Amino acid sequence: MRKVGKQEIEDIAVGAALLGTGGGGDPHIGKLMALQAIEEFGPVTVLDTDEVPDDALVVPSSMMGAPTVMLEKIPSGEEAILAFNQLEKYLGEKVYATFPIEAGGVNSMLPFALAARLGMPVIDVDGMGRAFPELQMVTFYLDGISATPAVIADEKGNTSLLSTIDNVWTERIARAATIQMGGSVMNAMYSMRGKNLKESGITNILQLEEQIGKTIREAKENNVNAIEKVLETVGGFELFQGKVTDIDRKTESGFARGIATFEGTNDYKDETLELRFQNEHLLAQTKNKLLCVTPDLIAVLDAETGLPITTEGIRYGSRCVVIGIPCHPKWRTEKGIATVGPAYFGYDVDYTPVEELVNEGGRK
Amino acid sequence: MRKVGKQEIEDIAVGAALLGTGGGGDPHIGKLMALQAIEEFGPVTVLDTDEVPDDALVVPSSMMGAPTVMLEKIPSGEEAILAFNQLEKYLGEKVYATFPIEAGGVNSMLPFALAARLGMPVIDVDGMGRAFPELQMVTFYLDGISATPAVIADEKGNTSLLSTIDNVWTERIARAATIQMGGSVMNAMYSMRGKNLKESGITNILQLEEQIGKTIREAKENNVNAIEKVLETVGGFELFQGKVTDIDRKTESGFARGIATFEGTNDYKDETLELRFQNEHLLAQTKNKLLCVTPDLIAVLDAETGLPITTEGIRYGSRCVVIGIPCHPKWRTEKGIATVGPAYFGYDVDYTPVEELVNEGGRK
Predict the structure, then answer these.
(1) Domain range for residue B23?
(2) Which of B34, B52, B61, B250 is 20 to 30 A from residue B271's alpha carbon, by CA?
């Protein structure tokens, strides 16, 4: 058990945005929401998973929708409380603690904003160890945990409580409702017991995020190269250095989809990187070489500061370093690859672990 | 209190389809569903509204979606029970009786199918006295009764329980979910107390529907003109006689929308009628004359049998008589016209009661 205050929030927000692989929301907005709640209600208690009773009712707090929409519609905090209240009413039971569903600038911060308001602890765990665009893309789904009863709530006060035959149906119906409800909503779904969370979640993710954020902050303070330090911290690989020359981005079917093109700099001169995303960065390739593909993590970092750049933050002319990080082993199983691998997103490549692509020079 | 068996169901189905003004579903399917349930579980008790206790919880049973979809996806009856069960669980109270939300071949029959299965009475009342395409288009909305908590359920077993800030939001969110859930769903919404129903509903609608159906049936048996008799029964007007020469129909945004064109026959030779619909027939006009417009009722009848034809049943070459019927006075109020008048559907005409259009020869 530990207390998380403002400095920890700043660091976690940066680390979460990096593991969010371009998605999971704008870290500036997420940070502001969490900081404001902590300012008003005091520090939040963080529990390790082994401190959570096996029979405790635990529910992640998250948002769904296009990050491009979230930029213009900042949640007040009331939406999340409304979603939790509806779920508690339906289950007839109080929630013991919350936690992030995924890593991301907003989605890692929302549980802190909610927990501060409700005087509830946050658990150091999430359901991805990164970010993914669809509701069924969580380790809980791989382990057969139902997303429903699932509540979504908008800032106007509308809620929808879904009970579905599987989590892919939760995604379909909730996504359609989200678009009507203004493009982004707050979720209370994947309620489970402490025991399930311990078995199925990605543990100690907040500690890792805090460590990443701290590494980047201290590198700046000490005037050393942040990116090298980050790669050490996360066990990742540099994939490319370049300058954004084209960015094709649209909001469709409730997602921010697109392609960013980078022209190589330094060691990568005369090469071109194509980065494909759907809320998150999902595939990085040069003209004849696959560099990294989902479920492995692709993060775009500012070449100077090492700070992560979200898909909606990618700007023409930005100088970036693109890195790859091996995903959690749960995603490398057969069901994991079927759920979040390249084929699911329509990419005609086989999944190959990033460390193999890097070490073997990739597939020509 | 009276019992409704097979003959009454046959007559009500026909009368309801006529008042359904082309929408409310295919009377053949609705009838089969009700007859099958009555066959299996016995006749259904029908109550007049004044037989319902003021504090009884009453909930209409209905379907939403495009009638064109309903043709291919006949409900088993389990969807309606699932929707009611979810609503009862949420409210923590048993439903006392059900009733139709609108007149229509399917939507007037569904309450009988459900009531037979659940051993529950049906109340002789609905919320329109006709059919309309959207959820907020009920007299209950005019009287400030909330559509939510509202449950929609599909045949796969998915449900969504909505709580919205107003009934227009219920419509928006439920419609989007309906499209994802296969294009049609069963509803349990507009739960209310007996007292509210007595004040806000259109009473004795089932009796009127049964009378219409009986009139058409007996006209056939006695070999007399059914349409004249129907016009007497409903207090309506003949608008046009003609033959379908064009039908432009598409399913979009979850509705069956389109325009049917009729070439005049008999007294209407050399005239052309244009009939616009969105699930229901909403506007009838010749080249220079408005004949009838929503919320007044427009029904298309088979010229020979007098049987009503739904929007999806209109076929090239069919000989029809188009009739107009004054709507219930609740729809002619300011809020009524704002909710279901021509402007709401995008027609650039003022509402004029059908009896004025007929008596004054319409607007040139």
Answers:
(1) 2-203
(2) B250
CB atoms within 10 A of CB A93: 11
Residue of B nearest to A86 (CA): B163
What is the Cα–Cα distance from B84 to B274, expressed in whole angstroms?
40
Report how many Cβ contacts below 8 Å link chain A to chain B.
65
Contact present, A30 and A107 (Cβ < 8 Å): yes
Q: Are residues A159 and A247 located together in one domain of the fold?
A: no
Q: What is the pTM of this model?
A: 0.86
Residues A30 and A153 in one domain: yes
- The answer to the question of residue A268 being in a domain is yes
> Is B71 in the same domain as B126?
yes
- The beta-strand segments (E) located in B50-158 are 57-65, 97-99, 122-123, 125-126, 150-153
| The domain boundary residue, chosen from A140, A171, A203 | A203
Tens of pLDDT, residue by residue over B169-200, are 999 999 999 999 988 899 999 999 999 999 99
Of the candidates B255, B291, B256, the residue with the CA atom closest to the CA atom of residue B273: B291
C-beta atoms of A176 and B172 within 8 A: no
A146 Cβ under 8 Å from any chain B Cβ: no
Q: Are residues A339 and A237 in the same domain?
A: yes
Cα of A161 to nearest chain B Cα, Å: 5
How far is B221 from B83, CA to CA, in rounded Å?
A: 41
Contact A358, A237 (CB under 8 A): yes
Is the CB of residue B135 less than 8 Å from the CB of residue B170? yes
Q: What is the CATH number of the domain that holds A338?
A: 2.40.390.10
ipTM over 0.85: no
